[in-house]
Amino acid sequence: MRTTVRPHTTRSLSDAVPLSRRRLLAGLGMAVAGLSLAACGQATTVASPSASVGQATAQTSSATAAASAVAAGSSTMSTAAMSAAAASTTSGAAAATTASLATPAPSGGPAAAPAANACTAPVEYLSPWDVGTDIGAGLTKLNGDFAQAVKGCSAQLLYVSSDNTTILEKLVVMVAAGTPPPVALVPAQQTPLWITKGILQPLTALTARDKVTKEQFFPGYWPQMVLGGKFWRLPFQIDINFPWFWNKATLRQAGLDDSAPPATIDELDQMAQKLTSIQGTSYNQLGMVPWDLYDDTNSLQSWAFAYGGQFQNADYTKVTANDPKIVQALEWMVGWARQLGGYDQVAKFLAGIPKQPQAAIAAGKLAMTGLVSSAAAAIPTINKTAEVAGGLFPGTANAKPGEATWLSGRGIGLVTGAKDVDGAWQFIKWVSATADGTNALIQRTSFIPGYQSSPGLVALATDPILGPFVRSVQVAKGLPPGAVLAIDIWGNKRDQLITQALQQKIPASQALDQVTTGAQAELDQALSRT
Predict the structure, then answer these.
(1) Cα–Cα distance between 7 and 154 in angstroms, integer?
(2) How far apart are CA 247 and CA 169, in angstroms?
(3) Whether the Cβ atoms of residue 210 and residue 151 lie closer than 8 Å to each other
């Protein structure tokens, strides 16, 4: 049964507004949203820049007006049509296309790579951002840039939901019904799950034909692109978790150098102690809160990588959440909870600060923390006089500064059953592996791409607020488990075990043993199905 779509009116962004620094910061606020924000639960909305980002983006901006006549719009899937398609599909229809993640497989997709030629139809790509959002409007402009850059091709944004679970369910139905969109924006931390559901097909033959290689992308992102010996997705929007930010005034008041971030956890400990002021059960100022990097498990992942820990083995068949280095990281976090008067007491203090953590660091209530870019960019709007600087995440003897940073966000992949494979590949390659395409992506959506040579990154690297994100993505080595395992290791309430350890209700080692045992059982089941 053919799945129908209904047209959706495209709402464009104005090209007439000059790009001030504040507007740049606001527009680039989506460069990172963190695992808990966009890696990937609900999609996040930001303002998109309406003028070129730096000198390098001027050509893309001027080309858009000429391309507006051929820019494709958006489509929104009919719920009734989707239900009808689902009713005609058996529950196991997609299982036959399941791919193996455990064992390296021969390179190449289900068929030989087609010869490069013009698109035979508009390239539909499934997006979590609709045209009613600023990002959706920016993507519509990106479609025009693509049509101008690749003659004979055009692109259309297809929206069904902003929820990843719903998107996955819809794609399974569409693939089984034989009516899939050719391209999808893939949650980085669900890529293995999407592969096991049989809704993605490899890009291996296409990347080999067009010489898309490892050297073109940030090294820390590469392990998420190739799984089981096959090339599954290219980067589209990278979340960078997390550069380290500090309030310069609080450091000066404590007699510390306000231009030098802590390079190691030992230095961080010493600085945080000097920056913490507690009177009884009241907090005047906290130097840092190690578990407040957007949630307990996000925080643990960052500190675990700083200590040199890994959550899975080299071939992604074993969960190693109880790695001694990860246990050490969690015990360090528990030690700080004890030192600050208890996890729950700190939670009450932080809950009383609206727009936390950016408001807390802007006001000096929190001296140092890791931030996503939307939070960092919002600081000047919260407190114009706040002096906030950023740098690389602290390390240890096992990890240099910044190496603990982990990357998520969304990739872009080829959907199983795509009719016009080469047309789909034209769009995938252009937007993620060319200078013009990634430059346009930065301008239109403010996303940070994974293509190292993107000229748009030059302008971002010099910005005092957003520069740390560019420097961080260049050295990041943390590999989040969701990007390479077909399960959520924190699922089935295993995240609550980390909270209980921080509340000093159970030992850190016990919590991580239970996480490992439960997650391994689920992983074994997932691998047996492939």
Answers:
(1) 16
(2) 44
(3) no
Q: Is the pLDDT of residue 87 over 60?
A: no
Q: Could you please report the per-residue DSSP string of 33-97?
A: --HHHHSSSB----PPP-S-SSGGGHHHHHHHHHHTTT---EEEE-HHHHHHHHHTS-TTGGGGG
Question: Please, are residues 415 and 170 in contact by the beta-carbon 8 Å criterion?
Answer: no
Q: Quote the crossing angle between the two packed helices 134-149 and 58-67, to the nearest 10°.
A: 90
Predicted pLDDT at 84: 39
Quick one: tokens of 347?
Answer: 């939670």
pTM higher than the cut 0.85: no
pLDDT at 373: 86
3-state SS class at 376: helix
Digit-coded pLDDT (tens) for 481-526:
999 999 999 999 999 999 999 999 999 999 999 999 999 999 999 9
pLDDT at 393 over 50: yes
Q: What is the pLDDT of residues 123-156, one digit of tens each?
A: 999 999 999 899 999 999 999 999 999 999 999 9
Please tell me the distance from the alpha carbon of residue 46 to that of residue 16, in angstroms, as a whole number: 18
Structure tokens of 37?
């924000």
C-alpha to C-alpha distances, 230 to 105, 129, 411, 423, 466, nearest whole angstrom: 7, 28, 15, 20, 33
Nearest-angstrom CA–CA distance, 515 and 419: 42
Torsion over CA of 61, 63, 64 and 68, rounded to 10 degrees?
Answer: 170
